[in-house]
Amino acid sequence: MDEALKQIGERLQGLRDALDISAQEMADTCGISLEKYERVEKGEIDITISNLMKIAKKYGVSPDALMFAEEPRMHTYSVVRKGKGLSVERTKAYKYQSLASGFLGRKAEVFIVTVEPKPNAHTIYKNTHAGQEFNLILEGAMELFLGGKTIVLEEGDSIYFDSSLPHGMRAIGDKPVKMLAFTVE
Questions:
Q1: Which range among 38-42, 96-100, 166-170 shows the weakest confidence by mean pLDDT?
Q2: C-beta of residue 63 within 8 angstroms of C-beta of residue 142
Q3: Of 17, 42, 72, 78, which is least surrounded by CB within 10 A?
Q4: In the chain, how many H helices and how many E strands?
């Protein structure tokens, strides 16, 4: 986990250096403080997928290059075999496996997200990003905190929502949650 955060931070710093962008400009792009952004580059704290996507969109790079150090190459289709998608464990609580990383110029991001249970967690980090999101629970159960509401989702349940609303999740019980997450702007 710590190594993945460090590598993402190094790639962000490399992008800034290559494009001659200040750390303050990157922080502004993400809507976070300069201090927090600098900690992201040092690999001390996590950066959200939505902020990586904001950076990728603004500076014309692939989100895959920032997350996985891989560039998409396929124009017509991209197959990801079971368990073979590029993955990154950004925190102990979340693991993302990309299911569309090989497709160049894609309009959506598709992940299998694994959320580990945290029985004593009282604070849930909420995120916002442009567009819409679809989640399908493949295994386990979770609470989704969405715009002031708490929605319980169990295996087989799905939700489609406006991702500009603050949202966050937590696994219920002692079993990890696996879900298909699809985001589009």
A1: 96-100
A2: no
A3: 17
A4: 5, 9
